[in-house]
C-alpha cells in the first residue's frame, strides 16, 4: 500500500516503454507527475472550501452547505459553475493588463510549491537539493501579485488591503525563514526528502524542545503568510470591504481563493514535513500519514478562524517583530546547544534556554498599563 | 540524461529570450507600474537561468531576495510617487537620445570585450551547493563576508536612526 502510487506510475512507464522510445518515456514520466499535481492541487482546494464551510458551520452551531448532493458534497462543483458563468467586471479606471495578470500569476507559485512536497516514500515530484528554500522563495513571490491586484483595481479599499498585505508578509517572512533554520542545521540539507528521512523512527523534530517552539513558530508564521484568520487583515471585511480582491469577480476571484487554499494546504504539508515527521508513521501507508497530519493542521487553521477575532494592525506587527523574531533567533541558539551536547544533557539545556526565552519575551512584551491617574483638583 | 541535453539548451535559449524581451519591455513601456511587473519577470527569468546552470541555491536566493523582497520595495516606491497614481500617466523618457548615445558608447566597449574574453568553460557543469558556498564564505572569503555584514548592520542602524521620530 505504501508504494501504491509509485508502483502505479512505474507500471505505466514500463507499459509505455514497450512501444515508445526512451525520451518519450521520460517525457511521460514528467507529465504524470505534473498532471498529478495539477489535478491534486485544485481538487484539494475545492474540497477544502467545503470542509471549511462545514467545519466553521459546526463551530457556529449550524449545518453548512447541505443542499447540493449528499452532505453538500457537490457544492464545490456548483460553486465552480457559478464562478465560471459569473460576469467578469473590470473597473473603468483599472489597469487592465495588471488586473488580468495578478490572479493568473498568483496561482503559479501556489501550484509550483507542490513539486517539493514529499507525499510519501519516493513520492516527491522533484527532490531538489534546495527543496525548503524553493518553497520559501516561491511563496514569497505571492506578495507581489497581491500588491499588483490591489494597485490595478484603482480602488482605495483594495490599495489599503494591498499595503497591509505587503507589510504583513514582509514582516512574517523573516521569522518564518528563521524558524526553519534549526531543522536545516540539524539535518544539514535543504532537501525535503532528507529532512523527512532524518526524522525516521519517532525522531520527529517536534519532540525536541527547540522543535516544539520551531513548529509553533513555523505554523503561526505560515498561517500569517497565507492571510488566514487571525492574520487576515489584508481582506478584513469589516474594515476594508474585501481588501485586495474587492474589485474581482467570477473566475478571477476564484483564482485568488484557489491560490489561498492551495497555499494553506502546502504550508500544512510543509510544516508536517519539517517538524512532524512528514510521511513517517506506524501501520498506515506514508502518503496517508502525510495527509492526516496536513489535514489536522488545516483543521487547526479552521478552528482559529472559527474562534479567534482578527488582530489589530499594530498588534500584528508587534507580534512579529517583538515576539516571533527574537524567539526564532533564540530558538536557533537552543538548537545549536542541542546539537553540541550529548543525549540527556542537551534536551535539558535547550529546554532551559527555550523556557527562559519564552519567559523573558513574555514579560518584555506585556502591554504596559497606563498609570493610575491621580486627580489633583477633583475628588475621585 | 544525455538525451535531454538538446531539450535543456532549448529551454535555456527560451529563458534567455524571455529575460531579454522582458528587460526591453521594462525600459520601453510607458507605464512605470507595468515596467516594475516586467522587471519582476526579468528577475524570475534570470533565476530560471541560474537553475539550469546548476546553481540551485543562487536561483532560490535570486527569487527570495530580488523577486520576493526587492521587487516589493520597488513597487512600494512606485506607489509612493504621487503622479503615478493614475495608471495612464506615462513615465517620462525625456532624455531618450542622450541615453541612447551613452548606451552605444558603452556597448561599443562591452560587446567586443565579451566576445574576446577567454571564458573558462568546464566540460561537465558541477553543482554549486549551499554547503560549498557556506564553507567558502566561512573559510576562504570570511573577511569580505564579515565586512559585508558590518556594512549591512551599519545600514540597518542608520535606517532606524533616520526613521525614528524625535520624541
What does this protein structure show overall?
The complex is a heterodimer of chains A (380) and B (167). With 380 residues, chain A is mainly α. Chain A has one domain (79-364). Chain A is 68% helix and 0% strand. Chain A contains 13 helices and no strands. Chain A has helices spanning 4-17, 22-59, 75-85, 96-112, 131-152, 156-187, 192-197, 209-225, 237-240, 250-275, 286-307, 313-340, 343-364. In chain A, α6 (156-187) packs parallel to α12 (313-340) and α12 (313-340) runs antiparallel to α13 (343-364). The longest helix of chain A has 38 residues, at 22-59. The termini of chain A are far apart. Chain B has 167 residues and is mainly alpha-helical. Chain B folds into 2 domains: 5-93, Four Helix Bundle (Hemerythrin (Met), subunit A), CATH 1.20.120; 127-167. Chain B has 6 helices and no strands. Chain B has helices spanning 5-28, 32-52, 56-80, 96-116, 130-138, 142-163. The longest helix of chain B has 25 residues, at 56-80. Chain B is globular. The interface between A and B is medium-sized, with 32 and 28 residues.
CATH fold assignment of the largest domain in chain B: Four Helix Bundle (Hemerythrin (Met), subunit A)
Which term fits the overall shape of chain B? globular
How far apart lie the N and C ends of chain B?
Answer: 64 Å
The arrangement of helices and strands of chain B along the chain is HHHHHH
Helix content of chain B: over 70%
- How far is the N terminus from the C terminus of chain A? 75 Å
- Average of pLDDT of chain B: 81
How would you classify the quaternary structure?
heterodimer
Query: Which spans of chain A of ≥5 residues are poorly predicted at pLDDT below 50?
Result: none
Average pLDDT figure of chain A: 83
